[in-house]
Amino acid sequence: MNEQLVTAIKELKEQKNAQILAHYYETADIQDIADEVGDSLYLAQKGRDSEAGIVLLAGVVFMAESVKILSPNKKVLVPDREASCSLVHGSPYAEYLSWRQEHPEAIAVTYINSSAEIKAISDVICTSSNAESIVASIPKERSILFGPDKNLGHYLAKKFSRPMLLWEGECEVHVMFSASELHRLRSAHPDAVVLAHPECNEGILQQADVVGSTSRLLKEVHTNPAKQFIVATEEGIFHQMRKMRPDVELIQSPVDDSCGCAHCPYMKLNTLEKIYDALRTEEPKIHLSQELLELASVSLNRMMDITDGKTVDWPESFVPPQL
Ligand code: SF4
Asked: How would you label 169-185 residue by residue, b for 16+ Cβ within 10 Å and e otherwise?
């Protein structure tokens, strides 16, 4: 059945000149049919630069919105419109706007895991792979509001010894890793290299040998001669890690959850069947108003410019848009 479905998806993709982009947290079968697999920055860049008329993003909705904002003329599809994110749910627009208005002089740095509306009231976006270069580009005298992930914000504030005002949001998956269980696991595997995503709590990050985005963690597995790795990020990443290094033992960092898995329920809403249906019907598609596209593109394009090594201007103070 899967083989037939995979063949049907490939045929539809050809017929419709579509490109499939998948995040590392998707299931192995979805990663294997994708044209590109990557982290949120890579997918945003690939989506923006794609020459296909249709981009189907198998990830979560904010990732597909980012492609639409960067490339408004493309048709951007998602397999399941409900594939959201706890960081999006934890940052409602009205409350975020009030917080932003309390600090009009600050630069609002916003994690890409946010709604298009939040991006529209932000100065610059970051992903976990470029967050350090984004923060480093902000003049020292400017204060910083960082949201919606408090753990990534705390990690950056500590790394740069730079105070930041943090929004109290978190990734419901990465905060499940247990620091005490990781401690026990490390004692049992003293030679293992511990890899952690910066959305994890500080208790995990303090024990990690490498903290970084999914791409950074993959690179470490690829290049580090160690034979054991303990991994504190979503389980979907293991598929590419196993492909890269079939010779190593990959151990999931233990989680405080009854299923014992580090499983993002939003990413896992996507299936091959839904991908096939989305390509066939060209629904669900991302639709954002022209005004929202323009407003959100400012912070997202500023991130792209900094990532491409360009110099950017910073606004003196925040002026709330009429949304
Ligand atoms: S893993 Fe966490 S941050 Fe990523 S989509 Fe799932 S809930 Fe959101």
From this structure: bbbbbbbbbbbeebeeb
HSE-CB of 228 using CA atoms within 13 angstroms: 11
Coil/strand/helix, residue 277: helix
Which amino acid is it at 191?
D
User: Residue 1: pLDDT above 70?
Assistant: no
108-120 pLDDT per residue, tens: 999 999 999 999 9
The HSE-up count of residue 115 (CA atoms within 13 Å, CB side) is: 17
Strand order across the beta sheet in which 75-77 lies: 36-38, 18-23, 54-58, 75-77
Cβ–Cβ < 8 Å for 120, 205: no
Query: How far is residue 120 CA from its own chain's centroid?
Result: 18
Q: Of all protein residues, whose CA lies closest to atom 8 belonging to ligand 1?
A: 85
Q: Work out the angle between the directed axes of helices 61-70 and 290-307 (0-180°, nearest 10).
A: 90
CA-based torsion, 14, 15, 16, 22: positive or negative: negative
What angle is formed at CA 305 by the lines to CA 138 and CA 36, rounded to 5 degrees?
A: 125
Pocket of ligand 1 (CB under 6 A): 25, 60, 85-87, 113, 171-174, 199, 234, 264, 266-267
Distance from Cα 86 to the centre of ligand 1, integer Å = 6
Query: Which pLDDT belongs to residue 231?
Result: 98
Asked if residues 278 and 33 have their Cβ atoms less than 8 Å apart, the reply is no
Beta bridge partners of 36: 21
Terminal C-alpha separation, the chain: 46
Give the integer Cα–Cα distance in Å for 295 and 254: 41
Please name the residue whose Cα sits nearest to atom 6 of ligand 1. Answer: 264
SS3 category, 213: coil
For 195, which DSSP code? E
Are 131 and 146 within 8 A, CB to CB?
A: no
Mean pLDDT across 269-295: 98
Report d(CA 122, CA 112) in Å as an integer. Answer: 11
